[in-house]
Amino acid sequence: MIGIVMGSDSDLPTMQGAADVCREFGVAYEIRVVSAHRTPQDMAEYGMSAHTRGIRVIIAGAGGAAHLPGMLAAYSPLPVIGVPVQSKALNGLDSLLSIVQMPAGVPVATVAIGGGRNAGLLAVQILATSDPELQTKMIAYKQGLAEQSRAKNEGLGQ
Ligand SMILES: Nc1c(C(=O)O)ncn1[C@@H]1O[C@H](COP(=O)(O)O)[C@@H](O)[C@H]1O
């Protein structure tokens, strides 16, 4: 149901966070390397066909001149979540700016640099709007997050 794509296998440490979330919530996903630069035909094919294969949200991560999320958004009717991967030369600022500044009419929901996990959570939240069982899991997840945060007070020694 969630398509996780990345420009290179070197993006995997970042994009693994999205896959981890899918597994935690029991949501089916696929993970693939597709590049707007290196395999443009595969990228176009992926963008045009993902919705016909049961994919409902695309998460696309790329670094540097990160055109992959925007190009997938150009081809696909699905919501695309863009993950700027931290780059060596410019620390991911290049990735962020390449992904976030989309022209009107072709949105990409951009998460923080390195935000693979948040991208996964956002994708699950999108699916949960039409899936009450998943919605219940998301509510429980958020409650768990709140409990962990409150528990930090106990370590403050006051
Ligand atoms: N930004 C893109 C795209 C694209 O946008 O299509 N394809 C590969 N890349 C990026 O190039 C970086 C270096 O790739 P290599 O590690 O393979 O040299 C990766 O972060 C990848 O996402």
UniProtKB/TrEMBL annotation:
GO BP of this protein: 'de novo' IMP biosynthetic process
InterPro entries named in the record: PurE_ClassI, PurE_dom, PurE_prokaryotes
One GO molecular-function entry: 5-(carboxyamino)imidazole ribonucleotide mutase activity
Domain PurE: 1-149
The keyword Isomerase is annotated on this UniProt entry: yes
UniProt pathway: Purine metabolism; IMP biosynthesis via de novo pathway; 5-amino-1-(5-phospho-D-ribosyl)imidazole-4-carboxylate from 5-amino-1-(5-phospho-D-ribosyl)imidazole (N5-CAIR route): step 2/2
Keywords for this protein: Isomerase, Purine biosynthesis
Binding residues annotated for substrate, in chain numbering: S8, D11, R38
Tagged with keyword Isomerase: yes
SMART domains: AIRC (SM01001)
Catalytically driven reaction(s): 5-carboxyamino-1-(5-phospho-D-ribosyl)imidazole + H(+) = 5-amino-1-(5-phospho-D-ribosyl)imidazole-4-carboxylate
EC class name: isomerase
Documented EC number(s): 5.4.99.18
Pfam families: AIRC
UniProt function note: Catalyzes the conversion of N5-carboxyaminoimidazole ribonucleotide (N5-CAIR) to 4-carboxy-5-aminoimidazole ribonucleotide (CAIR).
NCBIfam families: purE (TIGR01162)
Assigned protein family: Belongs to the AIR carboxylase family. Class I subfamily.
HAMAP family per the UniProt record, alphabetical: PurE_classI
Protein name according to UniProt: N5-carboxyaminoimidazole ribonucleotide mutase
Organism classification: Bacteria, Bacillati, Chloroflexota, Chloroflexia, Chloroflexales
Gene responsible for this protein: purE
